[in-house]
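Minutes, structural biology subgroup

Action item carried over from last meeting: produce the structure token record for LON peptidase substrate-binding domain-containing protein (Nocardioides acrostichi). EB confirmed the sequence was re-checked against the source entry. Recorded below for completeness.
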Amino acid sequence: MFPLNSVLFPGMTVPLRVFEDRYRALVHHLLRIEDPADRLFGSVGIREGYEVGDHGAQSLYRCGVRLQLTECERHDDGTFSIEAVAHDRINLEHLDPRDAYPVGHVDLVSDDDVDASPELVERARATLVAYAAALAQLRPTDLGSAPGDPYWLSWVLAAAAPLPMPDRQMLLECTDTAERLGRGIDLLRGELRAMNVIPSLPASEVGRTRWSPN
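Output recorded by EB:
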């Protein structure tokens, strides 16, 4: 497990700088796995505390994501620069910190309903396109193309919405694709209205990461 001070969504690609001994040990373990497809680890958001230090994470959210290590660069000082892509959601039942790196006992989480009406999907795609265009006027930004699949589209909207961590966690825990799409539409439309009044740079997670359904 690699707890972070952020909430990740399925499809997101995240860069990480690994310097703590316990997470360096985790990377070494992953690199020893022969098949790259099996280089998997989990991450949950830190509800209270910090990413670093022996007593950093005081409280963790239970719902997180399972990631695959896709890129790794080893530095002379023993640290790593890695990239990982989030595949699916997990529910953390128990975290055992006694090993060389934290080990989580998790269950996979799936959506109860992955369907959404064509009208809702089209509204979501149009909203994402409008938001990407408005954001591009403020800084170079690539949100990628809007997927047609409702499930993956819901995660793109969730990742694009500039939200505080508890609200992002709420979207991550939502198990209804249509509900997630509706919330994402409302959030991005609200941000578009705010940007029209006071141009600003929203604190979007997607601005610092890439998105991929692979």
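Discussion: The two ends are 21 Å apart (CA to CA).
Next step: EB to file the record with the rest of the batch.
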